[in-house]
From TrEMBL:
Name of the protein in its database record: 5'-3' exoribonuclease 3-like isoform X1
Family to which this protein belongs: Belongs to the 5'-3' exonuclease family. XRN2/RAT1 subfamily.
Ranges annotated as biased composition (Low complexity): 1075-1087
Ranges for domain CCHC-type: 262-276
PANTHER family (UniProt xref): 5'-3' EXORIBONUCLEASE 2 (PTHR12341:SF41), 5'->3' EXORIBONUCLEASE (PTHR12341)
SUPFAM superfamilies xrefs: Retrovirus zinc finger-like domains
């Protein structure tokens, strides 16, 4: 599940960690699909060694997808999973290993959260079913016909839990898929595949991390292994950091805000109005139950690069006046530990801290402030230093009163605002809409112009005959209405009309049901909302908290309860830290309360004696009994089912059908705390022992603990060792066949561990397909064996010897200003908060007129995020089209090259040669002029030798005194001897400040027509350029100075929204001012943007709207 809101916070604070994935898609030639050849180089310009798949992040989206109809059978789910993995494999193209990990039995600490989620899901499903039944009766009374309710194999998503028949069949299906790809896909031929299914204990992502940790520092291990992990949980980021593997990327889908990719013209998802073809949604199946399978939009993906995040943390977590040299690896460990306080899957949420209220910023601020006083780092590897943790968390607790008071005020204001809105709405649903549907006129599309006079057909009335695509065209019914109508045709038409009406009624039912459920989940919409009894922030809030949540009445009971809660919570912090760094330290430990203590309650931690007993994991069926509600008992064998449903069962109290959901201080029902009874392990196991003997052979296999499976093609070097082991085992008795052999790293691309023979056929000549409509594998050339990881050894939390660190890319200009702490932010302008009450810097004797740091009020947008939203609004409103980028249709084009950077007007002011203070604006000389470079991709050149990315402080490269250069410098600066850097392969940024020699950029003709063709003016004796008639002369739109080889030197101009990272774009160097007298190549002039574009759209949006970006922002 991960940490709510953590990924969003991280992406907004450190935007350069994200890089858009360049994805190839299969080509269609004469109706035949040509698959992508994954043996070719990766178009993302990085070759990954290992790809790890957190399979539950794939299974769940395939089980209940958001962008298409739900599958109806297990086979449908399996085929979608295969397609999903194929797409991920094409993006990453691992060269050594593919590791598929499905969640197995979890530790008890996680089972409490799983139990809560599954009980909540069952309760919500029952409420939805009741509402749907009521609406169906209402529709029938009104004479609205509906298709029958769908019943499928997949009605209960709780079956995605170890021990169910679905998970057993899934394992077989994945084995078939692995054999299929290893036999026939050239990109799979040389890789190893490990499948860790649901019968292998442990959560999927932690099984992956255990494999990575245990491979490190062993013979044959490559310290520069490039890892890529796919998964949706935000805690994968912290797990990747905890490995201290530098070359680590996390692959995940770009998460859209709901409705962000919805067309306002036709109402369909997956495209905006700019790409609407005007056709109605095409029904698939009798009642659209199959959905639109062909034209589903492919969600884009991003890489989150851990090495860039580490670099951000190196800047962000600098400790001033430290008594010793700061170790980045220890800082990373402390950052991970601090994030445990804002949420994890094993401990309840601490009421003091909310990520949406800037909790992580608060923790980081206090950490840096208190670092010296608390004596240094909070952790040492997997072990927290509790006395220092106490000092740190007490400093956090000192802000509780302010946080709770502000939270209460905002909560009250929000509730009052919603009530006022409802009161002003008047008649509610019966009120007349302000805009009638008939008055909404679609924007006319006329030769690409934005606004054209005259009428045009409505989107649903436009024909698609011009493109000749029947599959994407409108229904045949429309064509029949325009042709001669016979009696038979009329009958067919009437039947179609009934089906159409039923489909519309179904959509209306679903919309009403969704609205009703949403209103019910919002406490502010509830008429009988319960009073908040705790009233955090008001006097006596802590006493009321322990009275209501822990049922402690007297001060003595409160103190006893507080101490026990603090002990268990601190145990939990230590347990989680060990879990992230060493693996499970106790399978049986769990936090025995529904609520967490306050930060100010964590006292006397240094006196606590914390120890764990390892124990052993539950069996799969025992876990099902521990986490399933009675409504999901169908997934268990009959005798187990009775324990959950029989009123006389000795443990029937574990399975309440109704339970309290505590909504104190919460708005939405999903935020509430389900107050379920905790499972008594001893009572549960006592009853299970009595019925285990009733299991069938198949059920006993589902209830067993197994090992990982290793697959390789017969042509792989490791197959020789596996065949040899298998041949020896065939001559041994069944007991002797458990012979274990150590993997030879020289045959396995550096992988260590142990292998032993499978119980069945290691190399079956024919592999039968378990899936309908998929063929058997004939002449199988894949061999399988059992695999075990190396023996446990201590994890060394730092990069291994011999690692080559990627070049540094983060500049001071990339760092955001220090944020206002949420509880201190009054919502006024920054200078009114007291932080900028007086200007602190002088520039040549005069005070600065503007604040030193840019400030955004809470809830506002700026920069890249504002640019994307603005572009989306314009593209969706005016139906702009994006020009072709020159890449083939089967490839998502890479981001713009150096030559397609947006024009940035120069600054006209100057500075003297005197000393400069921090905050002084340094600008380019007026004689320098600039123009938009061309659009063609440039050849790669060697990077300059003196690059600030290599770790040189900015101040070392400046030709003048620049004090406090290590701090954030908010102003655009131009420095002689500096150059522009346009990192490739990213579409979310602009120019970056990089000090050093000048870059050479080819002055090829640009993509825009000239407004002043043939007219040339000279602004000084050195440069000549075509001028844009739309720009004023003082704007300095000049061609870059050019040298003999046709490349131009562009002086540095800082752009606030940089590209993140493609470091491998190489640049040539040239001394500043070289070849000054060479005339520049003639450029195509002209203003590529309208007045509206230039005044109302940011520079990044101009780049996007110009049509030169690889993928438009949507």
């Amino acid at each position: 599940m991960g940490v709510p809101a953590f990924y969003k916070w991280l992406a907004e604070k450190y935007p350069l960690i994200l890089v858009d994935v360049i994805e190839e898609v299969p080509e269609m030639v004469d109706g035949v699909t040509i698959p992508v050849n994954t043996s070719k180089p990766n178009p993302n310009r990085i070759e990954f060694d290992n790809l790890y798949l957190d399979m539950n992040g794939i299974i769940h989206p395939c089980f209940h997808p958001e962008d298409r109809s739900s599958p109806r059978t297990f086979d449908d789910v399996f085929q979608r999973i295969f397609e999903y993995i194929d797409r991920l494999f094409i993006m990453v193209r691992p060269r050594k290993l593919l590791f598929m990990a499905i969640d197995g039995v979890a530790p008890r600490a996680k089972m409490n959260q799983q139990r809560s989620r599954r009980f909540r899901a069952a309760k919500d499903a029952a409420e939805v079913a009741a509402e749907e039944a009521r609406l169906r009766e209402e529709f029938e009374r009104e004479g609205k016909r509906l298709p029958p309710k769908d019943e499928t194999q997949l009605s209960d998503s709780n079956v995605i839990t170890p021990g169910t028949s679905f998970m057993a069949v899934l394992s077989i299906a994945l084995q078939y898929y692995i054999h299929l790809r290893l036999n026939y896909d050239p990109g799979w031929k040389n890789i190893k595949v490990i499948l860790s299914d649901a019968n292998v204990p442990g959560e999927g992502e932690h099984k992956i991390m255990s494999y990575i940790r245990l491979q490190r520092n062993l013979p044959g291990f490559d310290p520069n292994t490039h890892h890529c992990l796919y998964g949706l949980d935000a805690d994968l980021i912290m797990l990747a950091l905890a490995t201290h593997e530098v070359h680590f990327s996390i692959l995940r889908e770009i998460i859209f805000t709901p409705g962000e990719d919805k067309c306002f013209l036709c109402g369909q998802m997956g495209h905006i109005a700019a790409k609407c073809d005007g056709t109605a949604k095409r029904k698939s199946g009798e009642f659209d139950e199959k959905g639109d399978q062909k034209n589903v939009a492919r969600k884009p993906y991003q890489f989150l690069n851990i090495w860039t995040l580490r670099e951000y943390l190196e800047h962000e977590m600098r400790i001033s006046n430290s008594p010793f040299e700061i170790d980045l690896e220890r800082i990373v460990d402390d950052f991970i530990f601090m994030c445990f306080f804002v949420g994890n899957d094993f401990l309840p949420h601490m009421p003091t801290l909310e990520i949406r209220e800037g909790a992580i910023d608060l923790l980081m601020t206090i950490y840096k402030k208190e670092f010296r006083r608390m004596g240094g780092y909070l952790t040492d590897g997997s072990k927290p230093k509790l006395s220092r943790v106490e000092h740190f968390i007490q400093a956090v607790g000192s802000y509780e009163e302010q946080i709770f008071r502000k939270r209460a005020i905002l909560h009250q204001r929000q509730a009052e605002r919603i009530k006022r809105g409802k009161a002003q709405a008047g008649g509610g649903d019966d009120a007349e809409p302000q805009v009638q549907p008939d008055s909404i006129v679609p924007v006319t599309r006329f030769n690409g112009s934005r606004l054209a006079s005259g009428s045009s057909p409505a989107p649903f009335q436009q024909t698609m005959e011009s493109n000749g695509d029947e599959s994407s065209g409108r229904p045949h019914k429309v064509r029949r209405l325009n042709s001669g109508v016979t009696i038979d045709a009329a009958i067919v038409e009437a039947e179609d009309s009934i089906e159409s009406d039923m489909l519309e009624n179904k959509e209306e039912l679903e919309a009403k049901l969704k609205e009703l459920i949403h209103d019910k989940t919002d406490v502010f919409n509830s008429k009988d909302s319960k009073e908040d009894k705790i009233k955090l922030g008001e006097p006596g809030w802590k006493e009321r908290y322990y009275q209501e949540k822990f049922l402690a009445e007297t001060p003595e009971e409160m103190e006893t309860t507080r101490k026990d809660v603090v002990l268990k919570f601190t145990e939990g912090l230590c347990w989680v830290m060990h879990y992230y760094y060493e693996g499970v330290c106790s399978w049986r430990w769990f936090y025995p309360y529904h609520y967490a203590p306050f930060a100010s309650d964590l006292k006397d931690l240094g006196q606590l004696n914390i120890q764990f007993e390892l124990g052993s994991p539950f069996k799969p069926f025992n876990q099902l009994l521990g986490v399933f509600p009675a409504a999901s008992s169908h997934a268990l064998p009959e005798q187990y089912r009775k324990l959950m449903t029989d009123p006389n069962s000795p443990i029937i109290d574990f399975y309440p059908t109704d339970f309290e959901v505590d909504m104190d201080g919460k708005r939405f029902s999903w935020q509430g705390i389900a107050k379920l009874p905790f499972i008594d392990e001893e009572r549960l196991l006592t009853e299970v022992v009595k019925i285990e003997h009733t299991l069938t052979e198949e059920e006993a296999r589902r209830n067993s603990t197994m090992c990982d499976m290793l697959f390789v093609a017969a042509s792989h070097r490791l197959s020789e060792q596996i065949f040899s082991l298998d041949n020896r085992c065939k001559r041994l008795t069944e007991r002797q066949q458990v012979e274990v052999e150590e993997v030879k790293p020289d045959l396995s691309d550096g992988m260590n561990g142990y292998i032993f023979s499978c119980a069945g056929d290691t190399h079956p000549p024919i592999f039968r397909s378990p899936i309908k409509d998929m063929e058997d594998i004939l002449a199988n050339e894949v061999i399988c064996c059992i695999y075990r990881t190396p023996k446990a050894h201590k994890h060394i939390p730092r990069p291994p010897a011999g690692v080559i660190f990627p070049p540094k890319i983060i500049q001071l200009s990339d760092l955001k200003p220090k944020p206002l702490l949420w509880h201190e932010d009054s919502g006024r302008r920054p200078f009114q908060n007291g932080r900028f009450a007086a200007a602190r810097h002088l520039v040549e004797g005069s005070m600065l007129k503007s604040p030193v740091e840019r400030y955004n009020p809470p809830g506002s947008m700026s920069g890249r995020k504002l640019g994307e939203a603005s572009h989306r609004l314009i593209a969706n409103s005016l139906k702009l089209k994006v020009d072709h980028t020159g890449f083939s249709n089967n490839v998502q084009a890479p981001p713009p090259s150096i030559a397609t950077a947006p024009h940035i007007p120069p600054f006209n002011s100057h500075v003297s040669n005197g000393s400069l203070n921090q905050g002084q604006a340094v600008v380019a000389p007026s004689e320098q002029d600039y123009s938009r470079p061309g659009s063609q991709k440039q050849p790669r050149r060697a990077p300059p030798k003196h690059d600030s990315r290599a770790g040189y402080p900015l101040s070392q490269n400046l030709p003048f005194d620049f004090p406090n250069a290590q701090n954030y410098y908010p102003y655009p600066i131009c420095v002689p001897g500096s150059y522009l850097h346009y990192p490739p392969n990213h579409q979310n940024g602009g120019v970056r400040l990089i000090t050093g020699p000048m870059a050479q950029i080819s002055t090829v003709p640009g993509p825009y027509p000239s407004h002043l063709s043939g007219k040339r003016q000279r602004y000084n004796t050195r440069y000549q350029a075509n001028l844009s008639g739309s720009y004023p002369k003082c704007g300095g739109i000049m061609a870059p100075q050019a040298n003999r080889n046709g490349s131009a030197v562009i002086p540095l101009l800082h752009h606030p929204y940089p590209h993140p990272h493609l470091l491998h774009e190489q640049r040539g160097t040239q001394p500043h001012g070289a070849n000054q007298h060479q005339r520049g190549n003639q450029q195509q002039g002209g203003n590529p943007f309208s007045v509206l574009d230039r005044k109302g759209v940011t520079q990044q949006q101009q780049l996007d709207l110009s049509g030169t970006t690889g993928r438009p922002l949507i």
